[in-house]
Structure formats: structure tokens, C-alpha cells
Write a structure and sequence with these properties.
The longest helix is centred in the C-terminal third of the chain and has 26 residues. This protein is mainly alpha-helical and about 130 residues long. The protein is built from six helices and no strands. Helix content is about 65%, strand content about 0%. Bound molecules: protoporphyrin IX containing FE. Protoporphyrin IX containing FE binds next to α2, α3, α4, α5 and α6. The site of protoporphyrin IX containing FE (HEM) has 20 residues, from α2, α3, α4, α5 and α6.
Amino acid sequence: MARPDLCTTEEIRQLVNHFYDRIRDDAVLGPVFNEHINDWPVHLEIMVRFWSSILLGSGQYSGTPMPKHVALPDLDASMFHRWLAIFHSTTAELPNRDMANQADELARRIARSLWLGYQMNREPNRMPQELGHE
Ligand code: HEM
């Protein structure tokens, strides 16, 4: 599903920068990110490599997002919905609609899997709840 011709790295960089500008301004998510990220330029660079790997298949990202998110205290479904809403409002402004649609689809899938993994790691004896629609 990765497509090397989908977009440029510069387009990815702009998406990442605009998205995290909004995240940092958000009343709920801003504090969570600011508390855990000491070096924003480093985080943004990691995120460019992450999106370049999953959108273009560039193989530039080799991290493990799940344990990083499982380590964050007190996440809930509404925060993942909020993350997705902010992501969607950012991709909505992209002139490259192919890129926007692909990024939205991947974000939805990964958010769902992070939320399911988060619950299974934190509360292994409870049935995890789907992200569902909001
Ligand atoms: C409620 C939703 C979310 C919150 C609060 C959140 C928060 C964070 C924070 C604080 C970090 C930095 C962790 C660290 O460096 O120790 C991080 C890293 C990251 N997040 Fe999220 N995140 C959320 C959802 C997502 C989603 C939906 C995706 C993917 C579509 C994603 C992808 C990543 C990636 C790839 C990293 C970098 C991991 C690494 O260092 O290799 N996050 N996130």
C-alpha cells in the first residue's frame, strides 16, 4: 500500500509541522505531548521518517510506537478521537488529495491499533473497547 510516488518528503514535512503546531495548541493533547517530549525538532524528524516509511515505503523509520504509547498514563478513547480529528483537519487542507486520503486511512488504522494495544497492555483482564465512531 506504500507508494513512492504519492508525495514528496517536503509535503510530509509540512503535514507533520502543521499537525504538531495544532497538537501543541490543543487544550487536552498539548500538555500530554509537551510533558513527554523534551526535544521537539527531534520528535518532528522522527515523525517525518515514520510517515515517509508508511506512505512511501522509504524504510526510514525503525522505532516501536506501541511501548512508547503504552507508557503514557491516562490515555482514553476520546483522546484518540481528538488526535484523529486534529489530524483530519490538517489533511483536509492538503492540495494533494491522494496523499491526504492515504494518510487519513493509515492514521485511523494505527490509532485503532494503538488504542487496542494500550488497553490490552494496561488492563489485560478487561476486554478492550473499540475506538468506534464519534
Ligand atoms: C491520544 C493519542 C496520542 C497521544 C497522546 C500520543 C502521544 C505521543 C507522545 C507523547 C510521543 C512521544 C513518546 C516518547 O518519545 O517517549 C509519541 C510518539 C509517537 N507517536 Fe503518538 N500519540 C498519540 C497517537 C498516535 C497515533 C494515532 C500515531 C500514528 C498514526 C502516533 C504515532 C507516534 C509515533 C510514530 C511516535 C514516535 C515513537 C518513536 O519514538 O519511535 N501517535 N506519541
